[in-house]
Amino acid sequence: MRQLLATLTIASVVLMSGCKKDDYQAKVGLCPLVVSTIPADKAVAIPLNQVVSATFNEKMNPETITTESFTLVGASTIAGTKAATVVTGTVVYSGLTAFFTPSSPLTPNTTYTGSIKTLAKDLMGNALQVDHVWSFSTDVSPTVTADPINNATGILLDKTIIATFNVPMDTLSLKTPATTVTVMQGTTIVPGKYSYTNTTVAFKPTVAFLPFTVYTLTITTAAKNALGTPLAVNYVWAFTTIPQLTVSAFPAVGGTVTGGGTFAQGSSVTVTAAPNTGYLFTNWTDGVTIVSTSASYQFNMAGNKTLVANFAVNGFILGVTAVNGTVLKTPNQATYSSGSTVLLAATPSTGYVFTSWSGDATGSANPLTVTMNASKNITANFTAVSGTFTLNTAAVNGSVVKNPDLVNYNSGATVQLTATPNTGFVFTSWSGDATGSASPLTVTMNANKNITANFIAIANTFTLSATGVNGTVLKNPDQLNYLNGANVVLTAVPNTGYVFTSWSGDATGSVSPFTVNMNSNKVVTANFTQAIHAGPLNIDLLSAGNFAILAGSGVSNTGVTTRIIGDVGSFPTATINGLLAGNVNGVLYTTADPIIGQAKIDLTTAYNDGMARSLNAISLPGQLGGLTLAPGLYVNSSTSGISGTGSNAILTLDAGGDANAVWIFKMGSTFVTDAGTSVVLTGGAQAKNIYWSVGTSATLGTNSIFYGNILADQAITLTTGATLYGRALTRVAAVTIDSSTITKP
């Protein structure tokens, strides 16, 4: 009983006075303490994936071991100012140890402070008497030393690039991903071979670096040291390769050059040029400008250079002359190199022989070899062969051709003489040392000869005057005078709107062409009368007639097979869409040219003329398919078109044999043809004499065939595959075509 009271008394004292200071023995009532930490206080080079832990002297109440009682704060210097960051994470308590696992890796080069606060209690409810605080530092980010150093110049083209780290590295992080270490020239990755140690990365280019070129190297933050700490930032540096000097000779056979290669920027370099035999050095150029006229040229390297040593022929001139003969030079050149040889061959003219060389050569050797040790002038001398004769010819009102035509002829040589009279004369005979009237004449040269060709004027030459009013007359042949009995063919060509009717004067009948026999002077007149044709008078399109397509607000094409024969333009809106020059056999106007503006004025005049026609008007049905229409003026105040199938899809226009017959179709509104419909011309009808004057817009159906000039106030549309033998002319709106063919008549 006394012992129980003593125990209760002790317990009461403990409860009343709190826990005693820990004597590091697990006794009931002692204060909890942190006896060790990982990392230890003041530890350095701690990995970034470190789990922080604290071990107590006794078992703790797990409910008091939380992120509020176990905290971790990192402190680093940013822009010269200390900054503290609370680390987030999870806390787990097991055995005697509390574990703090950060949510993300720790930051390198940072001091962290761990705290176990007095909120932590043991199983008896005893709390830490004071916060337990300790600190440690994370691993330092690796640094790089580069070879070559940043912005280095004069780097050799086969240089091995080396990056050295201050600490052992995780070589796998250098290799994966492959872009951790890159070498770039501009935006292009330089191919090469990488090699690694735990402290270095080396790069050897597969192909030598380009001369005087900037290369950039990058090691990204994916590179980590052995503890997993990455570079703080991407490490980037650059270098410039050594300049290169390229030298060459022009021409290549002119000489040799030395001094090319790679040199340090700013270094002094000398290039030399040595001419080959027969050449001399002229100058050094940089490809454009002459930079030196000295064969030994010294300069300082400033980037890549390309120099050309220019050489010229150091030659001599060989002049050769000959009278009564020719000289052939082999080789035949303007100049010759010093020491070169030239072969001279003398060839005498007929009646002469080569005798000797004079000037800068002597003797009678033929051929002759000349060594060019200086410029030379050499003459080949020829003399006449014994027994050669001259042949002189004369002619008045004509000429004589000698074959062969020589100054002298060997004895016994034959010469053919041909007498050619002037216009209005005839050859009659030879005189002098030849007789007779044969031409050509063969002469045997057995002596010097003088021969004259005699000509007399031709009797009975006549003139032919051929004229016409409202037409022209062509003469074939067209001459001022004709020999007696010559035939002349006359062709009558009527002006537009007229026809040839007959000949009068010294010719009769109505046949053209007509043959006139010139047995006297003649005057012939071609008679023309105004053409009378069926139907109304033509509509004069004036300059608008030059266009296959003329629009007011642009031309639009779909399909590459479209083919236009004739000019194309639009005014005042000049827009041309989808139509290329290759689609047009004519002028394709792409701007609002004044020529188009005048054509639009002329189109308005023609359109108004067509819409004003009323004489002998014939009613125009709304459906024209299946009809055959004679020339005339056809009028419909509303709309018209061609529809139907078979024979009902065809409109026939019959000229009745009159090639000048005219049709004018006038409608107040639209004109539309269906797909597959067509217009057929018979009896000599021509598309150029057919006019469709449309009050609003016209549409030609798919794969339809149409003839005539469409003059529309508004728009014209040719749907897919439509063919128009005529013109598409609109005053206001656009012309739209799709894989169409338009042929201006």
Description:
The protein has 745 residues and is mainly beta. It has seven domains: 22-138, Sandwich (Immunoglobulin-like); 144-241, Immunoglobulin-like (Sandwich); 244-313; 316-384, no CATH class; 388-446; 461-530; 542-743, no CATH class. The protein contains three helices and 69 strands. The protein has a 16-stranded parallel sheet that branches. A five-stranded mixed sheet has the order 2-9-8-4-5, with no helix packed on it. A hairpin with a 3-residue loop joins strand 15 (192-196) and strand 16. It is flat, with a radius of gyration of 56 Å. Residues 1-18 and 22-28 have low confidence and may be disordered.
- Low-pLDDT stretches are 1-18, 22-28
Biggest sheet statistics? 16 strands, parallel
User: Which structural category fits the helices and strands?
Assistant: mainly beta
Range of strand content: over 45%
Q: How far apart, in Å, are the first and last alpha carbons?
A: 143 Å
* Average of pLDDT: 89
- DSSP strand count: 69
Helix content: under 10%
Give me the Rg, rounded: 56 Å
Features:
745 residues; mainly beta; Immunoglobulin-like; 69 strands; disordered N terminus
